[in-house]
Amino acid sequence: MSEGIGTDEIVVIERPHEHVAIVRLNRPKVLNALSNALVSQLAAAFETLDADGVTRAIVLTGDERAFAAGADIAEFAAEGPRLDEWDRLWATGLPTIAAVRGVALGGGLELAMSCDMMIVADDARLGQPEINLGVMPGAGGTQRLTRALGKTLATEMVLLGREISGREAELHGLANRSVPAERVLPVALELATRLAKQAPAAVRAAKRSIAQAFEQSLHAALLDERQAFHALLQTEDAREGVAAFLGKRKPVWRER
């Protein structure tokens, strides 16, 4: 894991803005196939950024040919994926945006769907082709895809290996935006910069509440949302936000 561009590391962190980080998958020769080492280093990058006290949003991306083409099949056959490493990815409190060009297949699509937002190229190819290997998605594909797309299309993608384009992904609610390929990263960075201007504690709490909508009953999730809301009301940032609104000025967030 390295800061900067042009290294031989398989996960590279770039800093285009003080509060925004780009985390780039860097295995271009194998279309950013998700080896266990890559997922482990990616989780470590997320944890580092989550704890640094500076980063407020993460853009996760690959390159122009691939976001990620799925699992590293040779490694998969030899030892199988270490899916427990994915739990570390899902635990990040920072908002994450997947910037997808080229292909996002299998674990690559599962990785993109684990982000809070997704910006895709019009001509990107997204799919869950695991069924063609005699297996099935194991890192959230059957669950997140069904929740995002509904049973009908998700069933075709999982059971038949159907791929969809970036345009279809936006049309069916899987992606936030579908844009020309060269606009994917700029649009993702624009959203990340906007996120970085919001009150950090409020963003983290709201992100948790959105996730709980899929993990709990409505009643339990509403109670957790109310608790998080009341906790935020006691923060300095909440008082600053109200004062700034009343004073017709921009708030200065202090993350307290």
Please provide a written account of the structure.
With 256 residues, this protein is an alpha/beta fold. The protein contains eleven helices and eleven strands. Strands 1-2-3-4-6-8-11 form a seven-stranded mixed sheet, with helices on both faces. Helix content is 44%, strand content 18%. Mean pLDDT is 91; it is low at 1-6. It has helices spanning 36-51, 73-78, 84-90, 107-113, 141-149, 151-159, 166-171, 184-196, 200-212, 218-233, 236-246, and strands spanning 2-3, 11-17, 20-25, 57-61, 66-68, 96-100, 103-105, 117-121, 125-127, 163-165, 177-179. The radius of gyration is 19 Å and the shape is globular. The two termini are 30 Å apart.
Helices and strands in order:
Elements: E1 2-3, E2 11-17, E3 20-25, H1 36-51, E4 57-61, E5 66-68, H2 73-78, H3 84-90, E6 96-100, E7 103-105, H4 107-113, E8 117-121, E9 125-127, H5 141-149, H6 151-159, E10 163-165, H7 166-171, E11 177-179, H8 184-196, H9 200-212, H10 218-233, H11 236-246
Parallel strand pairs: 1-2, 3-4, 4-6, 5-7, 6-8, 7-9, 8-11
Antiparallel strand pairs: 2-3, 9-10
Helix pairs in contact: 1-3, 5-6, 9-10
